[in-house]
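[recover] target loaded
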């Protein structure tokens, strides 16, 4: 049945004049296939789903891949980043889903973003996942919502995508690195870690941003200004070409057309300004208009739910942990006040069970669980030792 369906699909696409396939051309022999890369590789060979021969393995150094205007399969994959980028479990889901979606040969992948930012390590993982998609175009769509745009790490994630599209009224930028103080409040990195260490980390982060921008032919100087409030960027005309440079690097005879960022504040661009300076590609009021402009209105939208499920799982775990904290406090009080051997054993058994659950969650989800693994293990060891001691004691 599967083969019949596949043959029917091949026939349909052949009749349509390869409307839903990339063109894969051997640069040495001229041999041509129509299909798409799945993203899977083995021993230096990449898998390609082709109309002519089904699944084949090719050496990409010998082939030219031409992205046909209408894409491959008539689907559009949508992944959503609707809040802070803080959870490893969400990032795991993002990485896996992105790869799986790309392997299906969609017309393109939309990463919808409305986020205040998040952890730099999480951001870099998500950027690496996006950059790793070589077989499909990725579009960041800053769609507006509660956060109003892509800030900080979310702006950086946008830079990793092939195209950046924005909804009216949204903004992108303000991507400096911050840390948290002892009270859990945002704090200046250099004040917290010291000038030398803080500047080293900030420099690495802004150079990473500039690199992402350059790779997609976006103004690297503006990316720097999103991270460093001391960077002033001006637009100049050099031989009829718009060039964005730091003011300190401006040639003496170059006339300033516009100052895009001034010292003292991080660069944040409106949708209109982002498109005007080349940081974003176009403004779309909604996803439907974006799809219409890319000849994809008839495409099936495949929305990824795994990140939302990961967030929901985290919230359940967080609620459980809050209950466990209360349970542990109660268990300790009962243990401290009881004079009954049976009640003491019962209290300790509950504490051991709770600690074991927390430890299992910590081992599975790492930094997403806000507890120190060594502390939990030490608590578990003490509770177990006390339980074994009371249980093993002779009763007189």
């Amino acid at each position: 049945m599967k083969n019949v369906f596949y043959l029917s699909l091949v026939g349909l696409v052949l009749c349509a004049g390869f409307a839903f396939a990339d063109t894969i051309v051997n640069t040495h022999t001229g041999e041509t296939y129509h299909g798409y890369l799945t993203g899977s590789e083995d021993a230096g060979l990449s898998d390609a789903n082709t109309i002519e021969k089904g699944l084949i393995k090719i050496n990409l150094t010998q082939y030219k891949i031409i992205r046909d205007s209408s894409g491959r399969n008539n689907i559009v994959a949508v992944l959503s980043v609707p809040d802070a980028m803080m959870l490893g479990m969400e990032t795991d889901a993002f990485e896996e889903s992105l790869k799986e979606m790309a392997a299906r040969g969609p017309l393109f992948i939309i990463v919808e973003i409305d986020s205040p930012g998040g952890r730099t390590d999480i951001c870099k993982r998500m950027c690496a996942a996006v950059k790793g998609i070589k077989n499909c175009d990725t579009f960041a769509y800053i769609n507006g919502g509660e956060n109003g745009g892509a800030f900080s790490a979310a702006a950086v994630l946008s830079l990793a995508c092939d195209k950046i599209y924005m909804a009216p009224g949204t903004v992108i930028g303000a991507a400096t690195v911050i840390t948290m103080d002892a009270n859990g409040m945002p704090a200046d990195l250099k004040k917290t870690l010291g000038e030398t260490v803080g500047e080293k980390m900030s420099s690495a982060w802004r150079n990473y941003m500039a690199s992402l921008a350059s790779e997609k032919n976006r103004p690297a100087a503006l990316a720097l200004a999103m991270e460093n409030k001391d960077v002033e960027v001006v637009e100049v005309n050099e031989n009829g070409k718009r060039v964005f440079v730091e003011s300190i690097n401006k040639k003496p005879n170059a006339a300033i057309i516009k100052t895009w960022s001034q010292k003292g504040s991080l660069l944040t661009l409106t949708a209109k300004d982002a498109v005007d300076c080349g940081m974003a590609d176009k403004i779309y009021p909604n996803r439907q208009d974006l799809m219409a402009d890319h000849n994809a209105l008839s495409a099936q939208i495949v929305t990824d739910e795994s990140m939302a499920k990961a967030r929901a799982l985290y919230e359940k775990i967080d609620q459980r942990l809050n209950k466990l904290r209360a349970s542990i406090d109660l268990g300790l009080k009962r243990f401290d006040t009881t004079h009954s051997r049976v009640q003491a054993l019962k209290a300790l058994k509950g504490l051991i069970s709770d600690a074991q659950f927390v430890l299992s969650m910590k081992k599975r989800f790492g930094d997403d669980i806000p507890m120190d693994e060594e502390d939990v293990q030490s608590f578990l060891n003490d509770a177990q030792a006390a339980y074994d001691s009371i249980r093993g004691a002779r009763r007189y």
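[recover] notes: The chain has three domains: 2-66, 75-304, 308-392.
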